[in-house]
């Protein structure tokens, strides 16, 4: 195995702790858990989104260190989530506008009803061993994320399915018989949750040696030194930071609030970029009426900023 030096720690200068978490468990009482969980989060000033369903919990929250610790302790006090793991990073400002605890049919939507990661799942691979696995000639590496995520970062040599939603992934697998050409399948996603279902699906489809990156890209960027990394680019995150890089430092991407695509500093100079209205990704897909509507929203955001307020649409 490749030797690894001591890993860089996540950025510690940010005022807010950002906790990404998920746990699959049989959780039949999820509906009654919504109100007390949301009440605690709001009382502690924690913001973000948590999804709860019969199959478990998933989400990302941010707040002060004591507040996040209190919320995580409460979640782990539930017997179903006593073994919950989470990943922490930092943010220089609160990356969420509000707190939402949502009831869902699935905590990550794949649309295949008979997939249960508690029953069948791929083999977990620690970040320190990931480079060796994906560098092996007998391995096919698959990114299970969506196209706007892979556009800003991907593991070297990985296959990009170019899916727009995770629901498209099962059909992509079925339409690519060449995936059977090599004995090993290595899969990864942002924090690990999509691969729980993706690897379970692959096993169900007859793939024997299926592996996935434990803790996802976030754990890899936290633990593997940049000079030894096989990751190129930045990792898209679902909050106002937009992206993180090695050591989980905040990236330089911004978000187009018209289409929610991450955009680079170079794309900010594109003629089709107008803050809050359009970018080079969405300009061809939107009408002038759409852009007029977005301009009105952007005007309200600017007026709220002048008043020292934060517009909910911004």
Automatic annotation (TrEMBL):
Catalysis performed (reactions): uridine(34) in tRNA + AH2 + O2 = 5-hydroxyuridine(34) in tRNA + A + H2O
Rhodanese domain ranges (all copies): 135-229
Name this polypeptide is given: tRNA uridine(34) hydroxylase
Source organism of the structure: Agrobacterium albertimagni AOL15
One protein family per Pfam: Rhodanese
UniProt similarity note: Belongs to the TrhO family.
Keywords, ordered alphabetically: Oxidoreductase, tRNA processing
Gene name of the record: trhO
SMART domains: RHOD
Matches recorded under CDD domains: RHOD_YceA (cd01518)
PROSITE patterns with a match to the protein in the record: RHODANESE_3
The EC number(s) this enzyme carries: 1.14.-.-
Source superkingdom: Bacteria
Its job: Catalyzes oxygen-dependent 5-hydroxyuridine (ho5U) modification at position 34 in tRNAs.
Gene3D superfamilies, sorted: 3.30.70.100, Rhodanese-like domain
A GO term, aspect molecular function: oxidoreductase activity, acting on paired donors, with incorporation or reduction of molecular oxygen
Single GO biological process annotation from the record: tRNA modification
UniProt-listed HAMAP family: TrhO
